[in-house]
Specification:
About 35% of the residues lie in helices and about 15% in strands. The protein is built from 15 helices and eleven strands.
């Protein structure tokens, strides 16, 4: 497997080959050089003057946070001018855990406003352009965080993933994007989008690094009512497996563009060559085609509920008004973008008296069917392998023109959010100089197995490249 970048940097700090001040200085230089990608909303550094290196592997590690994670004393905007001046009075649990590890925060990163999009362009702070090719999107919503990892600016970054917002842009940028089992990383202090689907995720350059960060932040939190306990030591127990049994969705490759399909099929071929068994499982394509619309209905209803309090009165931007309704209208109309408005309207529409049973309740039933499907796909196997997308990163031009054609292969990542199962995207190859990744899934709380499968595939592909 690829060696840990975090471990190497930590060893360099312990042996005096580098210093924290030097690492921060280099990070700041690189952030200035990539300003035109709009990856960073707020530059910051919480390294104390009396910083002392400890044995924690994250001590002295440079990282960044998606700007929907609360940081006391540091503004948290959610990429919306609505919260342009908002400075939280408390810390998110994940930020507290990383502070206690000695990791050093250097920036709060760009995202689609409140996480509501999948492109990185629905933000009040400039389109998040792909750091590898600025004519293309990064993908969303954890766009800025993924950019900084792919650009080698930080050792790791924290994002959030409601449908694919860590794992899909990780495919576009050639990095590792990990979404844990539901509840393993606390969401306390994280701006919500859809609480039944939201996960905090980790972005790194290697599987080993994702395991190291996960060991620090996957902890039970009584402040989060969805928090779950899991005994783990992901990095220490990380291993390359033999004789794996991996399931794939039969015919899913038909939904992937030709050149990207070759990369996906090559991974399957290499697994077979290395003694692993591939189990093809048949799936009703009609059910897969229902993933996207089911996600939109459920997430937008929950999003509407979460942001109903965003009026500008208790906090946030306030344009003023004679009456309460007039005040709310002015504030939301000016500071909330059209994408968020659209999703809130959709949430209101499907929960109206006329549509609640026929649309919303039906979507909840379809979600149950999709969870059952996910579990069946992982029955009697070690894990499930799926494509991360049907294509490499689209151009900004095509995205704005709305000419990017998707397929059922693009929605499969959402299955892990519906089911709350662990899921990780890793680099699998390149087409025309652009990265493309594949995704590994396991049953709930089998995060260790998921890491092991990812490390095994990473090793196989690394040996091939050598």
């Amino acid at each position: 497997m690829k060696p840990s970048i975090i471990l190497k940097n930590h060893e360099n700090l312990k042996t005096g080959k580098t210093t924290v001040d030097f690492l921060i200085s280099e990070c700041n230089k690189k952030m200035q050089q990539c300003k035109d990608t709009n990856s960073v909303i707020t530059e910051c550094c919480d390294a104390p003057k009396d910083f002392k290196l400890t044995d924690n592997l994250l001590s002295g590690c440079i990282y960044s946070l998606k700007d929907n994670i609360s940081t006391k004393g540091i503004r948290t905007t959610g990429a919306s001018k609505f919260l342009d001046d908002y400075i939280p009075p408390y810390n998110a649990t994940i930020y507290e855990l990383l502070k206690s590890s000695g990791a050093i925060l250097t920036s709060k990163n760009n995202l689609d406003q409140f996480g509501m999009a999948g492109t990185g362009i629905q933000t009040a702070y400039g389109y998040a352009k792909n750091i590898l090719d600025k004519s293309r999107i990064t993908g969303g919503s954890s766009s800025g965080s993924v950019n900084l990892v792919a650009g080698g600016i930080v050792d790791f970054a924290i994002g959030t993933d409601t449908g694919d917002s860590v794992r899909r842009p990780s495919s576009f940028l050639g990095v590792v994007g990990y979404k844990p089992s539901y509840g393993l990383i606390s969401r306390y202090g994280v701006l919500p989008y859809a609480p039944s689907l939201d996960h905090v995720g980790i972005i790194t350059r290697t599987v080993a690094d994702a395991a190291i960060v996960a060991d620090q932040v996957c902890q039970f939190d009584p402040k989060d009512y969805t928090s779950q306990k899991l005994e783990h030591n992901f990095y220490k127990n990380l291993k390359v497996l033999k004789g794996m049994k991996i399931s794939v969705i039969k015919g899913i490759e038909d939904g992937i563009l030709l050149n990207e399909r070759k990369i996906y099929l090559n991974v399957i071929s290499k697994l077979k060559e290395n003694g692993h068994t591939i189990v093809e499982k048949e799936v009703d394509i009609k059910l897969l085609n229902g993933i996207g619309v089911t996600y939109q209905i459920i997430s937008n209803v929950e999003g509407l509920s979460c942001y109903a309090s965003f009026t500008g009165v208790p906090f946030g931007a306030n344009e003023g008004g004679q009456e309460y309704k007039d005040l709310i209208f002015k504030n939301r109309n000016k500071y909330i973008n059209n994408q968020v408005k659209k999703r809130m309207l959709m949430g209101a529409y499907v929960t109206s008296r006329d549509n609640f049973k026929s649309i919303y309740i039906k979507a909840k039933k379809v979600r149950t069917l999709l969870i059952e499907l996910m579990n069946k796909l992982m029955d009697n196997v070690d894990g499930l392998l799926i494509p991360s997308a049907s294509f490499v990163a689209p151009t900004l031009e095509d995205t704005f023109a709305d000419t990017v054609k998707t397929s059922h292969a693009d929605d499969c990542l959402i299955l892990a959010n519906f089911a709350g199962t662990p899921s990780i995207t890793i680099p699998a190859g390149n087409y025309n100089g652009l990265p493309y990744g594949i995704n590994i899934n396991c049953k709930q709380k089998q995060d260790q197995t998921m890491f092991d499968i990812a490390a095994t595939i990473e090793t196989i592909l690394e040996d091939k490249n050598e």
